[in-house]
Amino acid sequence: MSITGRLRAAARILVRGETKSRRTAPLPPITEADVAEFHAFFPRPKFFVFGHARSGTTLLMRLLRIHAEVHCDYQAHFFTRRPLLSSLVGTAEAEEWLRRKSNRWNRGKDLSAVMLRAAAEYVMEREAARVGKRIVGDKSPSSTIHGQSVRDLHLLFPDARLIYIVRDGRDVVVSERFRNFVEESRYLSEEDRGIVLSLRKNPHAFVDGTRSIFTEPMLRRVAGGWAVNVQEIQEEGRRLFGARYIAVRYEDLLDDPERMMRRLWRFLGVRRLPKALGSKIRVEMESNPDQEWQERRGEALASFLAKGRSGNWRNLFTARDKAAFKHVAGEMLLQWNYERDNNW
Question: What domains appear along the chain, each with residue ranges and CATH number?
Answer without folding.
Answer: 40-335 (3.40.50.300)
